[in-house]
Amino acid sequence: MNHADPMIIASRSLLDIVDSSDLRSNEPANPEPEGSDAALRAIVKGVEAETGDRFFSSLARSLALALGVQYAFVTRLSDDSTHFRTLALWERDHLGENVELPLTGTPCELVLRGQAAHHPTELCARFPDDHLLAEWGAQSYCGVPVFDAQGRVFGHVAIIDDKPMPDGPLGIAVMRIFAARVRAEVERLRMEDALRSANDGLAQSEERFRDLFENAPIAYVYGDNDTRIIQANGAAMKMFGLKPEEIPGVYGTALCPDIPDAQRRLRDGRELIKRGIYPKGLVLELRRMDDGRPVWVEWWYGPMAGGKLKGSMFIDITDRVLLEQEKTRLENQNAYLLDEIRTQQNFGDIIGGSSGLRKVIRQVQLVAPTDATLLITGESGTGKELVARAIHDRSARSGQTLVKLNCAAVPESLFESEFFGHVKGAFTGALKDKPGRFELADGGTLFLDEIGEVPLAMQAKLLRVLQEQELERIGDTRTRKVNVRVIAATNRDLTKEVDEGRFREDLFYRLSVFPIEVPPLRERREDIAPLALHFLCQSARRMNRPEPKITQATLTQLTSYDWPGNVRELQNVIERSLILWQEGPLTFDLPVSRTTRNPAEPAEPPAKQAPLTREELKRQERDAISAALKQTNGKLSGPGGAAELLGMKPTTLASRIAALGLNRKIINDDRSAGYPA
What we know:
The chain is an alpha+beta fold. A hairpin with a 2-residue loop joins strand 2 and strand 3. It is elongated and about 120 Å long.
């Protein structure tokens, strides 16, 4: 590699250096403000003939005198970027001793991060922790960074004065030019040191140079145009399993194995050479000549002096490639193991292996073979129905039907019909006999979800059926025997409901023969990953979409969220993210958890307001529906209908109208207003 003579660089005109694009700062140069010519000439005159330490000293002195400031200095940033040391420091009328100062809290901090800075006044007030500024009585500051050949901050050039410095653009323009000159001097010194070292080494003798070549840690090979190896150093022979006597007659192409991918890589490199493009860092897969082991290398190639020989440099990257291959293997293995989670860490449709869930599973295994009545408690979305199904599937009734009823969706007037059935003509609309859920579940299991929503008057009848296992349909005098196992579930605190008179105590004890509490998802975070993978696979199959990868970082994000909606919320988040997914790993946009509260904030005291009674709630509901029907002139569904105003489904609104006994009143109101009933 050819290098310019450092003394030639040093003797070039300073203005030529300033105009040279390869020596400019990484920051875009601003147009020089008017008045900078005189300052430039004064500084150039002071430093043009200087080099090395004398250059830095002359530059600091000339900057201070030409720009009329008290202090000027050139610095170098420490390797850890926490301190800077002056290379030259001009203090008022003399060169001062070089100092090393911490970076933080000084006006130099921004500059040594790569930006020019100008503080025209009140410098000490801006940087009160910089005691040297106070000692100097500093009022103003201007500084620009110095970059090295790699574009990294090497140090900076700065001026400080004990009076205001309004003309910041002049100082920045001038110092930016000489920052480039500092960079040139730094590179010149580095090159001079490198060439001096090289010349010292070459002066030892040609034998010394040969020893350096032979003992170089990087593999070097010289060959002809036919890839025949002429000379190889020790590192190359060790890399390729060659002995010195084997070098003559060995062709470089013989190192490439006869496998398609390796041959393709070599062909690509030779095609580049034919087009006059020399490979730089091209990855090749080669083989050792002694034992055939693979050697992965980065290959540099170029002609030697005279053009007869070609030089190749090889850097062994075998360990890196094998590490990448091992990483790929482990990622594939991890994907397999994650897939295994879906099949091994589950209990029927219950997925997970946390201690809380294992406790639930043990309870299921204990109680499933019995006919005991069960009460499953837990927050909404925790999977209470899945627990009920697991109990049914492992019971002696698994061959029969699991009948489900969500009590929260049943209008109050229809509970008895839903539970026990009715006969034809029992009430208006009873056009035929209909069995209730207890009869449908005869011989099997009845799952009553949201049992806390059953009206108090209905609870007595439900208790009788649970105790006697017999019932009468509405409008029928015939008593029917049933054999039903009841599993109830609720997200309410039934003990509190009992204390407040909204739930019968005897029914509570009859239901909670064997209570099972399903913990919320935030208390079993280790189950979130297998659940997420299960829902991802399930949703991708249902949507007929490819299953995206899910990274460990994403699983950690899911695990960190509190999931106030529990498993149901997790499933919805997975499905929504899969719908939005286009390519790459799957990502999630999670809201801030509603359960998260700053511990430093005091908890809000509960509002002291008496709860509404059931009759008051019904009255409020009746008033709201009546008002909506009047506002819409009796229109129930469709755009502008009462259902739309109330945010309800039309069928739900119709059920509530019937349950609240509003039909006659609404008809009378409609007739009196002139509307057809």
